[in-house]
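hey so i finally got around to running the thing on that chain from the lab meeting. sorry it took forever, my laptop kept dying and i had to restart like 3 times. anyway pasting the input first so we r on the same page abt which one it is
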Amino acid sequence: MTLKFPRILAVAAIGLMASTSIASAQLRFWTTEEQPDRLAKQQEMAKEFEKETGTSVEVIPVTETDLGKRATAAFAAGDLPDVIYLTLQYVLPWSEAGILDTVANDEIVKELGPETFTQKALEMADFDGETAAVPSDGWTQMVLYRKDLFKEKGLEPPTSYANIEAAIKALNNPPDMYGFVAATKVDENFMSQVLEHVFLANGATPIKPDGSIGFDKKKLVEALNFYKTLAEASPPGDLYWQQSRQVYFAGKAAMIIWSPFILDELAGLRDSNPPTINDDPTSTELAEKTGVVTRLSGPSNKDGAAWGDVRYFGVTADADTDPAMEFVKFSLDKGYTQTLSIAPEGKFPVRPGTKDDPEKFRKAWMTLPAGVDRKKPLADIYAKEVIDNIMEGLDNADRWGVKEGELAQASRIINSQVINRLTREFIDGERDVDATADMINEEIAKIQ
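ok and heres what got predicted. didnt touch it at all, straight out
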């Protein structure tokens, strides 16, 4: 870890010079939110910050798939931006590499108040006792289900393997109604995310408590058998997010797993992907018939888990530190509603409020208009229990390798797609579940 004692000692020395240096600063901010409308909102926020502090901020779009390579190259050249909006997968590796100024980021969290953040978001960024990056927003993967059909059949919500299996048995009637639409296209990240969600639900993780590699075989076998049940109740072919959405939007799927970014489309707010359950592409019928579950449990993990994705602001090692810290604090406080408004359907507040008003930002988020071609707050469309389930998911968010401090190794295992491939081969009958579980453990042990 890069030691920052000179910076800490310098705080007392700069005294009255601080406001002058901040006012004259020029910051560079990398963001992966590069769509034109989202970029415009971030530029607006940067202008507000400049108006308040005198510090200008150049908002620089970076394609998310290029972020790792660009940051590594910039670090080597001593030319990192001052602040980066980054995904969870980079927080710990970049902290270890010295790309992030973990002392500065931890100081920001302490000044804003650790108690004002979702604790899971802080835990995911824990680096030797410091919060290595500042949580900005997040979402949890969801099981979306036809609550009208569940009610008709007297079914319990799909909160567990057993409940989902019971619903499939009662509702699966292809091609008119598929019980589920599982992800089966092995080279799609969507399958990786869905599998991790399902495996996490049963406590099946490739990282053991001591940091070594390997699934608990019993938990893995249970998860594989359950996933095969999902696949057998799905349409044929190589399935990923596109088919999952299409089949559900047509009213021909009882359950799917998706991210919250589907919520505005589901409510008829986006012309490019309208619900087709009826003849009105702007209809909220399907949204009103949809229930949401974020916390799913398996037989070996009664408490269950929610697959979460959290985004962070990170002050970098090359930053003009004081003004960069002020920009991040502004983005999480006075400018936080603007930060969330970039895409409210997928940016849920991981800082629910302030010390004085613990629900301030959560309340503000509920009023933000979501959608593209038409806009409406999600709370005006979906029932309160749906919104509450989504928000509570962040309180239980988890990912492979987080609690063991091995997120980087878990990411390498996921990115290899070996679990996707072997699971698909099991689904297709190429080997039995015991042999598949053994082969998965053998293959992931080779990944470094």
